[in-house]
Amino acid sequence: MTFVPILVLALGTYAFRISGTLLRGRMEVPERIRELLSMAAIVLLVAVVATSALMTGHQFAGFALPLGVAVGGVLAWRKAPFVVVVVVAAATTALLRLAGLS
């Protein structure tokens, strides 16, 4: 029963992706629309990060998690290696929780 919706979604995804390749030379997207789409992608990504950093389920995650994400964000902004960003952010969150800041 679950196989049919998965197959439909897979075929729809494939058709959507191949249409971009096939229509690339036939459609002209105005520069203003390209800028708006680029900004929309950034806004969506920031919204996902903010929601993930601040919420656990339907409740506030506490202060340790947002501070850990902020430390990771600063390290990523300073172009630290990805492994360092993840480990330091996780360690920051863990140490803050260990210190009693939930």
Architecture overview:
The chain crosses the membrane at residues 6-24, 36-54, 60-77, 82-100. This protein has helices spanning 3-23, 31-54, 64-77, 82-98; strands spanning 55-56, 59-60. The chain has 102 residues and is mostly helical. The chain is built from 4 helices and 2 strands; from the N terminus they run H-H-E-E-H-H. 5% of the residues are buried. Helix 3 packs antiparallel against helix 4 (82-98). The longest helix has 24 residues, at 31-54.
The general outline is extended
Share of helical residues: over 70%
Instruction: Compute the average pLDDT.
Output: 92
Q: DSSP strand (E) fraction? A: under 5%
Catalogue the unreliable spans.
Answer: none
For the secondary structure, the number of strands is 2
Radius of gyration: 20 Å
Q: Indicate the structural class.
A: mainly alpha
**Count of separate DSSP helical elements:** 4
Oligomer: single chain
Strand order of the largest sheet: 1-2
Q: What is the H/E string?
A: HHEEHH
Through-space gap between termini = 43 Å
Sheet with the most strands, sense and barrel status: 2 strands, antiparallel
Short key terms for the protein model shown above:
102 residues, mainly alpha, single chain, 4 helices, two-stranded antiparallel sheet
Quick synopsis:
The protein contains four helices and two strands. The protein is mainly alpha-helical and 102 residues long.
Topology of this protein?
Blueprint: H1 3-23, H2 31-54, E1 55-56, E2 59-60, H3 64-77, H4 82-98
Antiparallel strand pairs: 1-2
Helix pairs in contact: 3-4
Pfam families: AzlD (PF05437)
Keywords: Membrane, Transmembrane, Transmembrane helix
Protein name: Branched-subunit amino acid transport protein AzlD
